[in-house]
């Protein structure tokens, strides 16, 4: 029997009991659809992590004021004592830790931005020059802050794209005056948009002012300690030096802040690479779990195929004997039953792929999970479908081919 004869015979046998064949393929349909949806979700989540890495930088350290908000003996720190970092700390890090490439101290807070009849609630950040390099910000229009702006508390502001669009629409923002709180500022530049960040926040919903401007004009009423900052962002030159640089920075700050051995730090250092690694590990575990669920579905579907094919062999023993009696060899019988199993699996796989694609698109459109559907996922699903038919169809086909023709003809 050639290939087409084997295929025609398999189709004829399945059509003879089409409802049973359809129900048998249901397990494969569910399994293949689950593989596509779950692998797409896993790849989409990994893509979000890659976006997070590109947005934050894997060579970055964030140093924040406060070591949990408590002082010695569990006594809560006062509001002014919370600002334990200073610009001098940032300069010491720049000068004494050679692995560090960029350092930028910053202050931040919320404000109401107003232009004409438009207003927008946003976040402001008082920054130093290296802030732009560390965070990957570039100027879309206008200019950056000049050196004299950082030391003089200039009333200059750079707008993120969300703020610019909300206040000015299609108008040119450069040179216009906006109010942040009650203070007027001149817009000298706008930032190129970044879109949504790795943690779901709108990165473009921000306004930037020089650090001294933020201290004097935005937080002046708080009476901050001289030179106090909320955070110091550090960019390390090489990724392999991040952990070492973190140790050096922690030791330097403990020395500068006169923290005794055994006492808690009055600052905290967050390694972005460690945060990303933790999230990557979590995503990997989630992907493995989703893959396990899909694999179980495929195994169940494959067992269903094997079960039905074994039943089919038992029901068709006399037919097998007749085929052997008229010249069909064991190989012909094996190929026939293997073709039937493969056909069930392939039809189920095709339907599963279609359902999986639709399900993935629906998850991406109405669900909260990120998805990434591509040809590799579909090829993987098709490969699973073929493997399921071969693996679970081989034993019934082998059993059918080993029947004794004389004994088979005696069956009623």
From TrEMBL:
It is a multi-pass membrane protein. It is found in: Cell membrane. Residues 21-251 form the MacB-like periplasmic core domain. Residues 292-405 form the ABC3 transporter permease C-terminal domain. Pfam families: FtsX, MacB_PCD. Keywords: Cell membrane, Membrane, Transmembrane, Transmembrane helix. The keyword Membrane applies. PANTHER family: ABC TRANSPORTER PERMEASE YTRF, MEMBRANE COMPONENT OF TRANSPORTER-RELATED. Belongs to the ABC-4 integral membrane protein family. This is Efflux ABC transporter, permease protein. It comes from Lysobacter enzymogenes.
């Amino acid at each position: 029997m050639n290939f087409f004869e084997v295929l025609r015979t398999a189709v004829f046998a399945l059509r003879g009991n089409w409802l049973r064949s359809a129900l048998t393929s249901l397990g494969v349909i569910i399994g293949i659809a689950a593989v596509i949806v779950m692998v797409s979700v896993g790849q989409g989540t990994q893509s979000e992590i890659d976006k997070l890495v590109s947005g934050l930088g894997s060579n970055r350290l964030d140093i924040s004021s406060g070591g949990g908000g408590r002082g010695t003996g569990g006594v809560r720190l006062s509001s002014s004592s919370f600002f334990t970092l200073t610009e001098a700390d940032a300069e010491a890090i720049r000068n004494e830790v050679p692995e560090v490439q960029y350092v930028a101290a910053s202050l931040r807070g919320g404000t109401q931005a107003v232009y004409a009849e438009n207003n927008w609630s946003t976040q402001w950040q008082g920054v130093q020059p290296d802030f732009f390099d560390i965070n990957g910000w570039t100027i879309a229009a206008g200019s950056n802050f000049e050196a004299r702006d950082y030391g003089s508390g200039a009333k200059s502001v750079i707008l993120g794209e969300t703020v610019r669009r909300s206040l000015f629409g299609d108008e040119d923002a450069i040179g216009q005056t906006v109010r942040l709180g009650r203070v007027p500022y001149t817009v000298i530049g706008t930032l190129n948009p970044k879109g949504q960040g790795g943690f779901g926040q709108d990165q473009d919903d921000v306004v930037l002012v020089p650090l001294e401007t933020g201290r004097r004009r935005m937080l002046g009423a708080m009476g901050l300690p001289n030179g106090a900052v909320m955070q110091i962002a550090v960019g390390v030159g090489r990724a392999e030096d991040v952990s070492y640089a973190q140790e050096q920075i922690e030791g330097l700050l403990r020395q500068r802040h006169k923290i005794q051995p055994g006492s808690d730090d009055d600052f905290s250092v967050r390694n972005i690479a460690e945060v990303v690694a933790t999230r990557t590990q979590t995503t990997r575990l989630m992907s493995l779990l989703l893959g396990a669920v899909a694999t179980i579905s495929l195994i169940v579907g494959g067992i269903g195929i094997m079960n039905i094919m074994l039943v089919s062999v038992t029901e068709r023993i006399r037919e097998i004997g007749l085929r052997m009696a008229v010249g069909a060899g064991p190989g012909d019988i094996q190929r026939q039953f293997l073709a039937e199993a493969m056909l069930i699996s392939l039809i189920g796989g095709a339907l599963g792929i279609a359902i999986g694609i639709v399900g993935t698109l629906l998850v991406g459109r109405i669900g909260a999970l990120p998805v990434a559907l591509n040809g590799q996922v579909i090829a993987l699903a098709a490969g699973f479908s073929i493997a399921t038919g071969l693996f679970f169809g081989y034993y019934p086909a082998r059993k059918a081919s080993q029947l004794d023709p004389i004994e088979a003809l005696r069956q009623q």
